[in-house]
Amino acid sequence: MTTALRPDALRRVERLGRIWEDRPGVLGWLTTTDHKRIGLLYLFTSLAFFAAGGTEALLIRTQLIVPNGSTLSPAAFNTTMTMHGVTMIFLFVIPISTGAFGNYLVPLMIGARDMAFPRLNAFSYWVFLGSGLFIYAGVFTGHGPNAGWFDYVPLASRTYNPSSAIDFYALGLIFNSISSTAAAVNFIVTIFKMRAPGMSLNRMPLFCYAFLAVSFALVFALPALSVDCAFLELDRRLGFSFFDPAHGGDVLLWQNLFWIFGHPEVYIIILPAFGIATSIIPTFTRRRMVAFPMVALAEILVAFIGFGVWAHHMFSVGLSTITTVYFAAASMIVVIPSAIQLFAWLTTLVTGRPIFKTPLLWIIGFIVFFIIGGLSGIMFAAIPFDQQLTDTYFVVAHFHFIIFGAAVFPLLGGLYYWFPKVTGRMYHEGVGKLSFWLSFLGSALAFFPMHIVGLLGMPRRVYTYSPQVGWAPYNLAESIGAYILAAGLVLLVANLVVSYFRGAPAPADPFGGTTLEWSTSSPPPPYNYAVIPTVTSAYPMWDVEDREEDVRKLDRGEMVLEEGHETPASTVLDANLDEVLDMPSDSPWPVVSALMITGIFAMLLTGHLIAMCIFLALFALSLGAWHGVEPQEA
Amino acid sequence: MSAGAARVDRRRLAQPNGWWGAALFIATEATLFGTLIATYYYLRFNATQWPPPGVEHPKVALPLILTAILVATTVPIFFAVRAARAGSARLAWLLFLVAVVVQAGYLGVQVHEFLSELDKFSPHDSAYASIYFTMIGAHHAHVVVGIAIELWVLWKLLGGLTNYRMIGVRVAALYWYFVNFAAVAVVLTQVYPSL
Amino acid sequence: MGNPGRELRGQRVAAAARRALLLAGVGCTLLLLAGCGQSEGGQSTLHGESDQTRKIIHLWWGMLAAAAVVFGGALLLLAIAYRRRTREGLPAIGQDEDVSTGLVVAFGVVIPVVCLVTLFFISDIGVVNATSAPKPGQTRMNVSVVGHQWFWEVRYPGTTAVTANEIHIPVKTPVNVRLTSADVIHSFWVPELNKKVDMLPGHPNNVLLYADTVGAYRGQCAEFCGLQHANMAMTVYADPPAKFKAWLANMSRPLAPPASPQAKAGEQVFLTQQCASCHTIRGTAARGRIGPDLTHLATRRTLAALTIPNDRVHLADWVANPQRVKPGNKMPGLNLTGTQFQQLLAFLQGLK
What is the DSSP annotation of B132-159? Predict the structure, then answer.
């Protein structure tokens, strides 16, 4: 807003500020329910875990840079390679995309003042932090999980892995799933019920469609993993026989349940990146997304079809031909929605007038890597090829192009894109571009030769290799690439940190964005919007009359909702105004409840069942206190 | 107060947020039970003899009767919600009390059955016992949580019916509809080898 | 907004870098072709020595060609987007939403469906028949391989032959390999001969081995199995039929009594120190089942599942300090006097 506020409007804005501001200091952060603060907590915590996972990667690459390396012993290598996978997937990429980007942006993009369940939001952050610390407590006490991120039995059973390393893994993942489940439920209800009146489903940003798909996928996929880990713990700690062939159990039960979760998980990983790409592309091409409805549908279909393909991770276990052929066919079908999105992005780029600033560069890099990773993925749907190349570095190449190239690149581009909005400062464009090129070339060098060395027969998860098989030059190149990539990422972080303190002040809308977050100040006020925005299309920032109407509404006092901690709830499909909700503000119960859950899992780990029951009772009490705070009634 | 809450409930066009949240949480729990039941059949089709030699076939009559009693508590719960939505907190309270008492009785008998069966065959010895006790134990845990939720609702309703507590009543009912449905699926799986 | 001159420079850098990337892609493909001519002792999937692997290699090259076309096409689109960045709409056609949407349908649905269906029929209906598990009557010989942490136990059903880490088969003979595991999941993989098949406790699997030419084919465990997964390799030797018969006959025989007094003393060392509690040597009292059968150890070309060559120096190293050679493996070091050690070595080197 460039015009000065009239006295009435100013009074309203000040009143909203007083109602919505957080408590000061550390206590304010511990008790916050503000989705923006929670998003930032998630951001810093997941970036810390990114650094941990990246360090683990560099240790692996240093060990493998020459044959018979001596950086890591076999035991240390197994823990490092396992923790690299666990950290990157459960403690970095899911929390940063759902917890940081999703939490911060979804309410802003739908014109709301907060998520549907603000305290549940805080709770899911504290549980995430607790689960990450729990798993790393295992690492730092010499019991780091070490059977690979997919932890196959019997290697993970008590017989072959008697230390508590696997208990940290299994309990840690169940613990972590509580956070993701809570977040998923929160996103779905927020997206369904909290959209600004007028934002019918067909006017909702594609970013939100991606998060809707991610959240449904989490809801239906996580239980399989939790049940699998529960079975593993029952086998290990209480002598159950789920996975023991000698007593009627089946080692393949673990794999089936794991991949029933694991395959949807990879779509959960990639969909937020698709959402970010579909936010950045229209802004920097200055045109609408081509085939918007097809892209929205494709985002949902990817998540849905992704539930039917899991056994393509098991093509070498000896499944019947008909089973393998079914799963190969399903795996090919899931390519189509991704291809639709890819060509929508490419066509939008070609038909638009792209400005190649840093955020768009990351998206171009994403597109290049997504194509390479997608093509190698399609190759795996050719069963005989899969049966040669699965469990080799070819598949390591495939999923690093997809996870790093296609899931992480948009996240890094998104960090640049929304940096001005979140901090109120501009990042340095030149250093931004340099950080992109270093990361892009480093990634290409680190991951592309893995295709070749896989074709040459190098299996995965090996702590060393013979100098006689011809793999050494490729490993050397990959390790050099990893170091270059690390340099690019360090430069990115440095750019953002320095720009936070010294960057030029950022306006509300530095790039010409299309979605609502660009209509409020940089950074947004605690209440997000003084007036709940008027929405009549899918590109609200380009509807100048609507934005002017918002200013007039503020003067009139319409849709300001300043009687309390208020935000509107709307109907699911058409977003007709349904009721005005009184939202909770600061509360200690989320962090207290998360602490009690940490106690429960710690006692499960150590086997102190009475102490566990005490924590369970305390958790129930804190839930009671949580629900004892009731909203003001109309 | 209760009349006010009933008015808010009638005026609303969409389901309240709390209802949606509960429905989605229930979706995860339903998936959990689906996974347990799928595991049961997966292990069954991997086995030549089910139950394995040395393990008795499951009882049919007692489990089915007990489940029928549990499912019957759907009736007082359904009418409790009806009463709450019409503004009568007291009637809702009494109907929930009836449900809780029956459910607690059910739980007592089931826990006794569970422990006595554990004495007869052990999860150490077979995958059958492992999935049998895990699936049934998970169901009982959900009954315990459901009773806890109802006790909370009973306590809160003593202070009158607000819009917030009305949503709580609806959430408790939704949870129990799910538990009772899952109970049917679990018991049919439990007795399947004897059918 | 930044300095326009700097922006333009930045964009030229971007274009140059894109060209560099294209060259790198070409370079990598060439590198790939270099992988065809593999080094001695390699286990390249691109070096096919059987009908199965050759079919898979043809499939691979076909898929790579198609992938290169798709990738090249996408790079072309990106280049067009860059070159036409000040103009709206498609080249020649201009701004037309219907055409743009049509392109998305054509390239996002129609063409992928055609390509995928083709790939499906070629690979998942066609090639998969050649690589599927052998049916009864399809093969002329059976071998049984049991995976252990971290070695391969090899038996020949119908004979008393037992060995470890080396599989001999007659050339040009379809052999059925039955695979299972004594402990955790392993995976049997000889890339030049066939696909990998997992070795699962409780789920026996079968794979066909067929070698066109006489030679040695390297394989490696392809399912993470613990501390020494990296050092669990093996060799498949395809021998001329007569040579194979002789080899099999030798493997079936128990050990002849050791000739020299040194070796006889060594046998006693073997039986009285811990060795016999883990290892079997047929023809002696050693009947351990934890480690590999050592009856004909001296005929093997490597030790510790291809970790070290089988000569006196490496054998001495291995026996004296197994944890240094293969850290975490289950063989403990022994406390032997110098004399005992020499006697043991003499005995072991006589296990022909």
Answer: HHHHHHHHHHHHHHHHHHHHHHHHHHTT
Which 78-107 residues of chain C touch chain A by CB within 8 A? 78, 80-82, 84-90, 95, 97, 100-101, 103-105, 107
Across the interface, whether the CB atoms of B8 and A570 are under 8 A apart is answered no
Residue with tokens 């305290």: A119
DSSP β-bridge partners for residue C302: C309
As a whole number, mean pLDDT of residues B100-123 equals 97
Q: Closest to C88 (Cβ–Cβ): which among A324, A351, A371?
A: A351
A548 in Cβ contact with A42 (< 8 Å): no
Inter-chain residue contact B17 with A569, CB threshold 8 Å: yes
**Which of B25, B43, B163 is the closest to A253 by Cβ?**
B43
C205-209 vs C186-188, strand pairing mode: unpaired
Average pLDDT by stretches of 10, chain A with 634 residues: 74 92 93 97 98 98 96 97 98 98 98 97 98 98 97 96 97 98 98 96 95 97 98 98 96 98 97 96 94 93 95 96 95 96 95 95 97 97 96 98 97 98 97 97 97 96 94 97 98 97 96 95 95 94 93 91 92 94 94 98 97 97 92 71
Find tokens 């790079």 and name the residue.
Answer: C75
The pLDDT value recorded for residue A586 is 92
- Beta strands C186-188; C197-199: pairing state: antiparallel
Q: Which of A97, A121, A133 is nearest to A217 (CA)?
A: A97
Other Cβ atoms closer than 10 A to C313: 9
Most A CBs within 10 Å, among B35, B132, B175, to test the A interface:
B35
Q: Residue B27: name the closest of A493, A538, A173, A216 by CA.
A: A216
Q: Cβ of B36 and A579 within 8 Å? A: no
Pairing status of strand C166-170 against strand C233-239: parallel
ipTM of the complex: 0.97
The one-letter amino acid code at A122 reads: A
Q: Kindly report the three-state secondary structure assignment for every residue of C159-213.
A: CCCEEECEEEEECCCCEEEEEEECCCCEEECCCCCCCCEEEECCECEEEEECCCC
Measured between beta carbons, which residues in chain C are less than 8 angstroms from residue A340?
Answer: 104, 108-109
Chains A, C: CB contacts within 8 A come to: 297
User: How many Cβ atoms from other residues are within 10 Å of residue A282's Cβ?
Assistant: 24
Instruction: Tell if the CB–CB gap between C6 and A430 is shorter than 8 Å.
Output: yes
Contacts of B127 in chain A (CB under 8 A): 241-242, 244, 247-250
Q: Name the 3-class secondary structure at A434.
A: helix
Nearest to B28 among A222, A238, A249 (CB): A222
| Partners of A369 in the β-ladder | none
Confidence class of residue C29 from pLDDT cuts 50, 70 and 90?
A: low
What average pLDDT does the segment C263-272 reach?
94
Distances from the Cα of C94 to the Cα of A291, A344, C98, angstroms: 17, 16, 11
CB C283 within 8 A of CB C256: yes
Q: How many residues does chain B have?
A: 195
Distances, alpha carbon A207 to alpha carbons A156, A274, A356, A514, C101, in Å: 38, 8, 21, 12, 20
CA distance A122 to A153: 35
In angstroms, rounded to a whole number, what is the distance separating the alpha carbons of residues B162 and A336? 50
CB-CB neighbors (< 8 A) of C301 in chain A: none
Q: Please give the Cα distance from C38 to C260 (Å, whole number).
A: 44
Q: Going by DSSP bridges, is the β-strand pair C186-188/C308-309 parallel, antiparallel, or unpaired? A: unpaired
b/e code A579-610 from CB counts within 10 Å (16+ = b): bebbbbbbbebbbbbbbbbbbbbbbbbeeeee
Is C5 in the A-facing interface, judged by CB distances under 8 Å? no
